[in-house]
Amino acid sequence: SARAAFAATLPFLPRQLAAMKRRLFGSPVLLWLLCLELLTLICATSLRRPQVETAAVPVALSRVNDVGRALYEERRAYKEAVLSKWRSYPGSMRKRLGMGGCGVPDSWPSTSGPKAEFCPFCRWCCKCNANDSMNCETGIVDVDDYGGEHTGVVVFCDKCEAKCSQCPAFNDMALCPRGDCCDNNMKHQPPFNATYGAGEYR
């Protein structure tokens, strides 16, 4: 019977399985196919990643862009306010500012201090306002980063107190309160007027 024939083959089954194993792993073609199948499985598993919520990405980018645009417009408005004040100041008096405590003469290098027309940018220095560390610069202020356009001017904050503390041309609570462009008791928050703070960030 079939049962008897199967029973008769049982003693030889381990030997047959061992022979199949030798044929399978001894054949380069079969071994190559096995490796290829294994590699395909690994690649398919590694490429399978959790689904990411992509709908939120454009929204987040849009918010970042909105913040960037708002900051750009705020700083551009500050630059325009500075220019407006500067232009409205009598030309004959502008030339004397560099000799009277507001900026350095035009012929001096920027390392000696900012020229009078750039003194209001000292207000972005941590030494010259009462803002927190996220809203002030500790070493230098790049005028082009704060509303300037291709000026290439850098304001060195350590020169501001000595060179930009008496600038009547920029006497405005949103620019230089009482003409002082390095007042570390007043916050700098244009276009809003400066208010008293806790002192400069240290």
Explain what the structure shows.
- The protein is elongated.
- It is built from six helices and two strands; from the N terminus they run αααααββα.
- The longest helix has 33 residues, at 56-88.
- Helices cover 43% and strands 3% of the residues.
- By secondary structure, the chain is mainly α.
- It starts with a helix and ends in a 39-residue tail after the last helix.
Shape: elongated
Helix count? Answer: 6
The unreliable regions are 52-57
Main sheet strand line-up: 1-2
The rounded Rg comes to 37 Å
What's a quick, concise take on this entry?
By secondary structure, this protein is an all-alpha fold. The chain contains 6 helices and 2 strands.
Topology, please?
Elements: H1 2-9, H2 13-26, H3 28-47, H4 56-88, H5 91-97, E1 140-142, E2 154-156, H6 160-163
Antiparallel strand pairs: 1-2
Features:
2 strands; two-stranded antiparallel sheet; elongated; 202 residues; mainly alpha
